[in-house]
Amino acid sequence: MSWLEAIVLGIAQGLTEFLPISSTAHLRIIPAFAGWEDPGAYFTAVVQLGTMLAVVIYFWRDLVRIVRTWFLSLRRPELRGELDARMGWYVIVATIPIVIFGVAFRDQIENGARNLYLIGVTLIVLGLILLAADRTARLARDADDVGMRDAVWVGLAQALALIPGTSRSGATITAGLFLGLKREAAARFSFLLSVPAIVLSGLYGLLEIFTGSDDVSLGPLTLATVFAFVFGYISIAFLLRFLATHSMLVFVVYRVVLGAITIGLAASGTIS
């Protein structure tokens, strides 16, 4: 991988990880359009550590408060009803499905699931589902109103992100909207729940690289991760402000157009 490829893919990862347009799809589609080699599932997982750091720094106070209150609540029953203590359990519960399915379908995710036709179709289908959720959402609940039922459904939706083209943020925000959360609340909930999943996939990717199971140059990988962090932070700040006053329509249109172009170019043999 060249330094230019690393920079481009790092920027793409950072900008698209938290927007509901699928970072994994972009890390597969951009190399195909540019004539580069597919960076692979492990590269994608490791570069996500950059965006994980971005969300940790952006929500640092929230995360510290959640972790602290959750640990204290284990021995202080009076704290168990507080949102921060409950949020700790929500994050744990929501992470379980993606771990189970990630392990069960590891081979398919690393190989067959990176098929361009599948990515194109997934971009379109999940985009239309996001549109349906946005148009029918009650937008009546804030982040303070989330419960265990929300965590379970959002966690199941997050597991769909194992399919390239789905988008972790897209799937979880869609689930949040169907559950009646406001757009900004659904996005914040999505970002908080993403931390363990991103950390686990990134560490697994690092393990595969360092044990020699995947051949990735550490220099370009590190550079891509740094760019992913910088642009991931920008992406979070942008999306939370954007959703305060806008719908999801622009992301839906983008997904459908990109999915259609990807399918068309793959069918014509222009990209492979």
Descriptive report:
The protein is mainly alpha-helical and 272 residues long. The chain is 75% helix and 0% strand. It contains 12 helices and no strands. The protein has helices at residues 3-17, 23-34, 41-58, 60-73, 83-104, 106-110, 116-136, 148-159, 168-178, 183-210, 218-243, 249-268. It is globular. The two termini are 18 Å apart.
Helix/strand layout:
Elements: H1 3-17, H2 23-34, H3 41-58, H4 60-73, H5 83-104, H6 106-110, H7 116-136, H8 148-159, H9 168-178, H10 183-210, H11 218-243, H12 249-268
Task: Give a quick rundown of the structure.
The protein has helices at residues 3-17, 23-34, 41-58, 60-73, 83-104, 106-110, 116-136, 148-159, 168-178, 183-210, 218-243, 249-268.
H/E series, N to C? HHHHHHHHHHHH
Mean pLDDT: 89
Share of β-strand residues:
under 5%
Runs with pLDDT <50, length 5+?
Answer: none
- For this entry, what is the oligomeric state of its chains? single chain
Q: How is the biggest beta sheet arranged?
A: none
Structural class by secondary-structure content? mainly alpha
Overall spatial form: globular
Total of helices: 12
Q: C-alpha Rg, in Å?
A: 18 Å
Q: How much helix, percentage-wise, in residues?
A: over 70%
User: Care to count the β-strands?
Assistant: 0
Report how far apart the termini are.
Answer: 18 Å
